[in-house]
Every structure is written in structure tokens, then in C-alpha cells.
Amino acid sequence: MTPPAAPSPPTAGKRQLLLVTGLAGAGKSTALAVLEDLGWETIDNFPVRMLKRLVTMADETGAPLAIGFDSRTRGFVPADIIALVKDLGARPDLALTSLFLDCAGGELERRFNETRRRHPMAAGRPVLEGIAAERELLEPLRRWAEVLIDTSSMTSNDLQTRVRELFAVPEAEAALTLTISSFGFARGMPPLADLVFDMRFLDNPHWVPGLKEQTGQDAPVGAHIEKDPAFAEAFARIRDLLLLLLPRYAAQGKPYVHVAFGCTGGRHRSVYTAETMAEALRASGFSPTVRHRNLGSRATDAIEGDRR
């Protein structure tokens, strides 16, 4: 099946309204959760008869609105829903799109048996009969929907990615919260870092006269580190790796990324590298927060161990 094309961008100034429906078990809850992460206001199983009132009340926020409904929703009559939404679609201030989540009957049966959930239309009859009855009930909505996603062969991650591709709010892709930190291996690894880079291959300023009491935030220490023949190439490769990975983390919906740089004591090499990397990433459009775990620790020969 050819994937549906992304809906056309709404006219400037229009409020985005997305109606999300489909077969039970096809992924509506997953889709709504992703939309919420993307900055949409989301409501599931809202009474259909109150839809016009809800849209009017929500106009004040300006955020895109996604409303989920299915055969379990009160007042669910497909013909009435289509008529109601046609009225909303005629409003000049709304950009309305409908999304239908479909799935093969055999796969839905497997999902319900695996999770031991009861199908909403299978009371007193086999799951497949309930699925068939719901499919018949929802067929008008399926034909009417602008966007159709068949989740039969999709994993949850596949569906999340597809929803992001179709409905990401432009600002949402830039909403990655990035932390760049420094630490000392001698004082323990950072417990929650996503990526850790060991800078102990660089010459240690701790053993250079006049630099021990300074830190990676001081210019003489930075100049010493940059003199190391290995620094420039290693830094460039790490920077390029981060520029490759960070947009992909954002596209997969990872809201927080923590990149940690370590050296022995956490005062010189890791601090300078973290500060310099943060500057490079800012120049590429990111907004990292910089934290130095061991910057205030006392400079100690015993901690540093040796001249490397």
C-alpha cells in the first residue's frame, strides 16, 4: 500500500484541528500520545455532540487540537459525525484534517489476544466477529478520511515515526532539550548520560606548572589542550557525530539528550571540551545547557593518578 501523503500546510492564521479515529487496537492511543508530545492539545473519546462547543472553547489557546473518537465514544454515529465535521470544515478559521487508523483483522485479533483486552464490540461473540462489525460501522469514516495509516505490519515505533512525519508542528522538531556536561572519571560515571566521550587521551593540564589550580574555563588551560595534536581531529569528529545524531533523536521523539565529556578529575580537559562543543552546537542551531559536575572539586594529585 502506498503511504498517504502528508496533508497540505493549513492557510496562515487557521487553527489546526485533527480528528483521529479508526479500529480499536489499530493505534489511536499511540497516535494521540505522539501528537501530545509534538505540542498538540489532545482529547480522547470526547462526546461528539459537544465537538462544536469544544472547538470554540479551545480557540483561545491557538495550539493545534487533536480529538480522538471511535465506536466507544458517546453519541457515535458515523453519518452524524461526518455531517457535523463538514460544518466545522466550512469554517474559515479552521484547517481540519481527519486521520483513520486501519489494521487487518487477523493482526487485531492477535493484539487483543496478546493483551487480553476485550474488544468493544465482541461482547458474547468471537473477537473476529466484533472486529468485522466495527469495520462495517466505521467504513463511512474510513472512506471520508483524508489520511489513512494501515498499522497491520507496523511496530509502535513505526507508527510513532509516521505520525511525526505527517503532523509535526514545525517548532516541535527544535524542542530537543540538550545538556552538555563534564565530569571526572575518578569521581564516578554520570548515571543518566546518553553519550559519553572519554577525553583522557589528551595531555593533562593538571601536571603543567601554573595550570593545576586553573580549570577548562581559563584561557591558558584551553590553549594547552588545543596544542595537543589529537584534539582538533577528535573534536571535529565528535562534533560531526553529534550533528548527525541529534536531529535523528529529535525525529524519533526523544525529548532529552545528555552528552557527557569525562577526564580524570573533571576540571580541565572535559570542561574545556564541553564548553567548546556547546559553542559549536549553538552555531549549528542547538541550545545546549552546560553543566560541570566536578568543576569546584579540589585539584588533587592522588585523584589525577599520573601525568596522563
Layout of SSEs?
Elements: E1 15-22, H1 28-37, E2 41-44, H2 51-58, E3 65-68, H3 78-89, E4 94-102, H4 105-115, H5 127-144, E5 147-150, H6 156-167, E6 177-184, E7 195-198, H7 219-227, H8 231-251, E8 256-263, H9 269-283, E9 289-292, H10 301-304
Parallel strand pairs: 1-3, 1-4, 2-3, 4-5, 6-8, 6-9, 7-8
What are the salient characteristics of this protein?
Rossmann fold; five-stranded parallel sheet; 308 residues; elongated; four-stranded parallel sheet; 39% helix; alpha/beta; 2 domains; disordered N terminus
Kindly report the name of the CATH homologous superfamily of the largest domain.
P-loop containing nucleotide triphosphate hydrolases
What top-tier CATH class of the largest domain fits best? Alpha Beta
Q: How would a crystallographer describe the biggest sheet?
A: 5 strands, parallel
CATH T-level topology of the largest domain: Rossmann fold
Q: Return the average pLDDT rounded to an integer.
A: 84
Number of helices: 10
Strand fraction equals 15-25%
Beginning-to-end CA distance, first to last residue = 59 Å
Number of strands: 9
The radius of gyration is 27 Å
Strand order of the largest sheet: 2-3-1-4-5
N-to-C SSE series?
EHEHEHEHHEHEEHHEHEH
Helix content: 25-40%
Compute the number of structural domains. 2
Which second-level CATH architecture of the largest domain applies? Answer: 3-Layer(aba) Sandwich
Give the CA-based shape. elongated
